[in-house]
Amino acid sequence: MWPIDAQRILSIPLSQYDMTDFIAWSYTKNGMFSVRSAYSVEWNYQYESRLKYSNGMGRSIPNPIWCQIWKLACPAKVKKIIWRTLHGTLPCRVTLANRHMKVSPSCPTCSRGLEDTKHMLFLCSKAKEVWKRLGMDVIIDKACEIDLAGEAILEYLLLLPDQDLSIMGYQNVREMIAISAWYLLWERRKLVHKELT
Q1: Is 71 helix (H, G, I), strand (E, B) or coil?
Q2: Rounded distance, CA 125 to CA 112, Å?
Q3: Reverse transcriptase zinc-binding domain location, by residue (predicted)?
Q4: Does an H or E element contain 60, and which?
Q5: Measured between alpha carbons, how far is residue 29 from residues 3, 6, 33, 43 in Å?
Q6: Which residues contact 84 (CB under 8 A, 6 or more apart)?
Q7: Taking the model in full, what pTM does it have?
Q8: Structural domain boundaries of the chain?
Q9: Does the pLDDT of residue 175 top 80, yes or no?
Q10: Rounded to whole angstroms, how far apart are CA atoms 72 and 190?
Q11: What is the pLDDT of residues 109-167, one digit of tens each?
């Protein structure tokens, strides 16, 4: 065994009382391990913080972005892709390359940057063109300066206060942001998979 493992084993505190050891899994009611319970523990570890916010008084409340997404007046397929984007599950090329898949991480649309969520939705020349035509290029540039992650930028845009959105002069700006993000992902999919329709 490795010395580091031996050191960790020896540092486990022992009970001061004479009792027999038993195997127990604290994440199930019966103390028995199951793959399902392990999956649940890992899922909670990775995603629960995204689903809930702490109000600082020991209570947690649902993250307002999820309520905002499901209230959007747009097709369910748009809401679903926004939900997937905010969970970081889009198969962009950087993610695939990081998972050791043999794919170039370069953007298939512009070939000028590494394709992560931020590039795909906000920094790619195609994305910049879409946001500029909608008159949102200034607010997108401001949002890109705030955070490095595309998911965080999209969440920021969807949670902008109503008074900031009304300044833009559009009605249903959140829907426009969501549908524009869906459109960019749809165009990318057509290009990558060489779909004609």
Answers
A1: helix
A2: 9
A3: 50-131
A4: strand 60-62
A5: 35, 31, 10, 18
A6: 90
A7: 0.64
A8: 3-62, 72-193
A9: yes
A10: 25
A11: 788 878 888 888 888 888 889 888 888 888 888 888 877 788 888 888 888 777 666 65
